[in-house]
From TrEMBL, chains A, B:
PROSITE patterns: SLC26A (PS01130), STAS (PS50801). The lineage of its organism: Eukaryota, Viridiplantae, Streptophyta, Embryophyta, Tracheophyta. InterPro entries: S04_transporter_CS, SLC26A/SulP_dom, SLC26A/SulP_fam, STAS_dom, STAS_dom_sf. This is STAS domain-containing protein. It comes from the Eukaryota. It is found in: Membrane. Pfam families: STAS, Sulfate_transp. CDD domains: STAS_SulP_like_sulfate_transporter.
Length: 643, 643
């Protein structure tokens, strides 16, 4: 490499510029060039190990390191030692509360994924136990979740008809769950959790609201007791389907049950919102609704009068399902694709709330949990947002609340499932509608509208995509908008014209600070981004446009001509060959107009690359200053006198 | 909207902070909130009309506007009025020179696209005439180009076998050319030219070098006189094919012709490089080679001894081909896909050299030219880099040199094509090898290696992708690397710890300036990017990591504890809801550690959004300063005294 052979050592020796008007003796410095390996290693570290996970291991004996690794994999080892009875009391109450909430939800969510009701319950038994040992979050409640169930159902039914081939359908569901788990575990193990950071908050809020509406619409089937319902999820198909069936007459008993209990549930939710201490009212309301409505149906035998009931619920705990997973054939590939897709999306929404402490560690725990789940007749589970909130409010202390919940679910499976046979579908529809209402986060939507109109457009795009087309389409829109915003950000960085705040050495954006005055004969431009191939042309053109605008103004107002262009590089963290090329072109264009190019405060990476590309020689070392003020002090007085 | 209702007008009234130690009276300002429409309009303008194309139209009468629009579409109207005989002399010489270069190249490039030789010549007749009327560049030379021909050939032969079904093949080629033209014209019309800015310079250099090697390898067929040659383009398949045929013996006459003329061509190229004035030697060398070798073959009837010759060359100018384009059926879709793909790639490489004045205008001209070309038996043409360079050096003044070239090609087609029948394929191979040698830009590659090691990796990736896999695969790698770099840039922005340069008010990166000293009790961090959902979590974590590192150091060296964290926001051009959320979390984390959060110099967009989200109220207006120096002056002395 050609570094270090030059005759200046570590800073630009502005020869002949010692008589400059700088008020101090500082010069632009650049650190020694880093080798390829160092640069690569640092890049990898910042990308994958941004949270510095090995910090604890530093300077520890080997046995301690082993223990730390084990405790890293199974955090239970860490907190179990300090577990007290007082903590158990909290966990016990919380566990019971979330169990009462999850049992009816599980049955409903399983239906959303077109799976038998007991599979939903299975998924709240084994996975929470695995998570309790490996997870890092205290108050997350594990089990099936609404949006993920909807998504899995949508993806699976495109491959196999759940009504005609329920056996193959559930096999594919377990296969997809297995690969979802593998994907999660891999992402966690290879520390690729950061990949999900590419969906914007606004797009997620819009998508979630859209998904909530879609799930709600799907519930109209159970709510109105419609037998033949569309398989599509967009609002128009659903409304047509509803309209067609309404003409044929609905089952009034079903509607009565659904509507009265929905009103009950929403009332308890409202009460809980008004008085946080009464959160348990809304938490146990679903179970109470199920019990009362089941009892009513059983007594009146309303199912004989057309009220649809759960029926197909099996007794007993999870049977093994290892042999059901497709290990060969075309469904292996399909299961893989669906699993990866479901988890890529599910992961995204996990990031919305602040439940994750160490994203990558959490992914590993969730992944292992789903792998084991797929072999014990469970479908994809994750942390449920609504139940996690209840868990927290019910005073959970550790992941033991999940264990309590799992045990309750187990007892339910062993003892009381036969009773659920007479549970009307309408009540499950009401419970799901009640649960997804809170996914419509209109407060955040309003905040986004206030803060950033463009972001709000992204939100609307994702929302209408889900509601009017499909979940996948809405997601596509969300991703496209998010990526588009990123790309726009890097192709069209902001630039600002700077002026001096009188009696200070501060140079600021003249648009923001009208009191900042321009220095006669000098134009100061700040570029607010790294200069890369994506924006190098634009930056050059934009600077020349500032100059043209300035010149027009000068002609009109008969001011002195611009003789110096100072480019403030403080925010320019990096530059590449295209960027340097653009600077060279800028220099040429300025030379034609007899304007001198001056650079202020280039950062370490920038000055080093400018030097490697010999741009510092081209422009002249005496044209590079530590601050705008230094540069102005050197050049401005002269030119101002020239007027 | 909630703007303007607050009781401060346009600046944060730091109540109670008037006794602050600021040495001036300036406060952080924010401009009035912009409406949705203004914001949208400005965004569209900066994205699509960054070069402000309507500047000329301002304040002009209607007739003038019409004339400007016409002249905008047909720049010939503009420059034709000032065309002189002196200019024509330059154009005439340049036109003859590029004609002598393009005739043999066209025949060779057509073979690269698996099209008959005369189609190559057709493509140098009609398209240059259209371009001359509509193009903006003076020295671009229009016609078939090496990489684009290779790419079109690769894409087309995947659909139709050019040997078995030459008629259908050429029909698909015209269809693809038509849609390539439409795509170009649309991109130009809708000002989407900026889309191509997403391929990094390094990836393009690597791809081009790889394509040159691939094209060179393909020429071994003609060069060695191999009859059965692999259809794959990767180096391993080609080498196996060559090796297999070498065993069966080669045609020594073919190799003799190819090798001797390649030596001649490379020698002339070297001479031209050493002495720029002798560029014409290398420019006419190909035509001379063709004439001499054709004459030799004709005299010795070497074709009877196994020397492959061009043979299938038709006399006469372009026949119409409108009826040959697939307007219906599956090939319509395929032709569309290939055309779009070819142009998306071709466009990318056009940006490499600085031939474009107005990218979008140029696209419109090239698109129209290809649409007309597809109806007159031409295949996709563009500006050839090597011929454009010759055109410039030969002293072209306007696009008339393209007209001269077109006329020479027309005369060739009408009068002398029968003579090309005996041109040996080996000579065409030599000419193409000679032409693509200059695509291997090792000087730039070396510069990239010097400036940025990571960029060089991207270059190598694209290069080896093309050479060892295929053109498409190489391109995929190039795009993936380029996009990956952009995404990495936005997820992992740089941050820097700042220190004060003694005796100044300047705060700079302590890594770059070891003389910068930290202020006791105060940590100053600068974030070097807009804070968006992509990086908000990382930025928060990174700041907390700086803090942890600092605290460890303080414990070791028994220094005073950090009490104030100043975040310098000058480079933070924008923030979104995720970013604000991250700041809120940072504030919470700091409150736990009893550290005060202070913001310095937020830009207009940032302060406005912080205010909309009420973060300014949360942190307190007296914690927001115009500069780091102001903040330090207010807080540092106190804390320093606390030691």
């Amino acid at each position: 490499m050609s570094d270090g052979s030059e005759d200046f050592n570590g800073n630009i020796s502005r020869t002949g510029s010692h008589r400059q008007t700088d008020h101090h003796g500082y010069k632009v410095r650049f650190p020694p060039a880093k080798g390829l390996f160092t640069e690569l290693a640092e890049g990898v570290k910042e990308t994958f190990f941004a949270n510095d996970p090995l910090r604890e291991y530093k300077d520890q004996p080997r046995s301690k390191k082993l223990w730390l690794s084990l405790a890293h994999l199974f955090p239970v080892l860490d907190w179990a030692r300090s577990y007290t009875f007082g903590m158990f009391k909290g966990d016990f109450v919380a566990g019971l509360t979330i169990a009462s909430l999850c049992i009816p939800q599980d049955i409903g969510y399983a239906k959303l994924a077109f799976l038998p009701a007991h599979v939903g319950l299975y998924s709240s038994f084994v996975p929470p136990l695995i998570y309790a040992a490996m997870g890092t979050s205290r108050d997350i409640a594990i089990g099936p979740a609404a949006v993920l169930s909807l998504l899995l159902g949508t993806l699976l039914q495109e491959e196999i008809d759940p009504v005609k081939n329920p056996y193959e359908y559930s096999r594919l569901a377990f296969t997809a769950t297995f690969f979802a788990g593998v994907t999660q575990a891999m992402l966690g193990f290879f520390r690729l959790g950061f990949i999900i950071e590419f969906l914007s908050h606004a797009a997620i809020v819009g998508f979630m609201a859209g998904a909530a509406i879609t799930i709600g619409l799907q519930q109209l089937k159970g709510f109105l007791g419609i037998a033949k319902f569309t398989k599509k999820s967009d609002i128009i198909s659903v409304m047509e389907s509803v309209w067609g069936n309404v003409h044929h007459g609905c089952n009034w008993q079903t509607i009565l049950i659904g509507a009265s209990f929905l009103a009950f549930l929403l009332t308890t939710k409202y009460i809980a919102k008004k008085n946080k201490k009464l959160f348990w009212v809304s938490a146990i309301a679903p179970l109470i609704s199920v019990i009362i409505s089941t009892f009513c149906v059983f007594i009146t035998r309303a199912d004989k009068q057309g009220v649809a009931i759960v029926k197909d619920i099996k007794q007993g705990i999870n049977p093994p399902s290892f042999h059901l997973i497709y290990w060969t054939g075309p469904y292996l590939v399909k299961g893989f694709r669906i699993g990866v897709e479901a988890i890529a999306i599910g992961r995204t929404f996990a990031a919305l709330k602040d439940y994750q402490i160490d994203g990558n560690k959490e992914m590993l725990a969730l992944g292992t949990m789903n792998i084991v789940g797929s072999m014990t007749s469970c479908y994809v589970g994750t942390g449920s947002m609504s139940r996690s909130a209840v868990n927290y409010m019910a005073g959970c202390k550790t992941a033991i609340s999940n264990v309590v919940m799992a045990i309750v679910v187990m007892l339910t499976l062993l003892l009381v499932t036969p009773l659920f046979k007479y549970t009307p579908n309408a009540i499950l529809a009401s419970i799901i509608i009640n649960a997804v209402v809170s996914l419509v986060d209109y407060e955040t939507a309003y905040l986004i509208w206030k803060v950033d109109k463009m972001d709000f457009m992204a939100l609307l795009g994702a929302f209408f995509g889900v509601v009017f087309a499909s979940v996948e389409y809405g997601l596509l829109i969300a991703v496209a908008i998010s990526l588009g915003k990123i790309l726009l950000q890097v192709t069209r960085p902001r630039t600002a014209l700077l002026g001096n705040l009188p009696r200070t050495t501060i140079y600021t954006n003249v648009e923001q600070y009208p009191e900042a005055t321009k220095v006669p004969g000098v134009m100061i431009v700040r570029v607010d981004s790294a200069i890369y191939f994506t924006n190098s042309n634009y930056v050059k053109e934009r600077i020349l446009r500032w100059l043209r605008d300035e010149e027009e103004q000068q002609q009109e107002q008969k001011l002195s001509k611009t003789e110096f262009l100072i480019v403030e590089l403080s925010p320019v963290t990096d530059i590449d060959t295209s960027g340097i090329h653009a600077l060279e072109e800028l220099l040429k264009a300025l030379e034609k107009r007899k304007i001198q190019l001056i650079l202020a405060n280039p950062g370490p990476a920038v000055i080093q690359k400018l030097r490697s590309a010999k741009f510092t020689e081209l422009i002249g070392d005496d044209k590079i200053f530590l601050s705008v003020d230094d540069a102005v002090k050197k050049f401005a007085p002269k030119s101002a006198l020239n007027v």
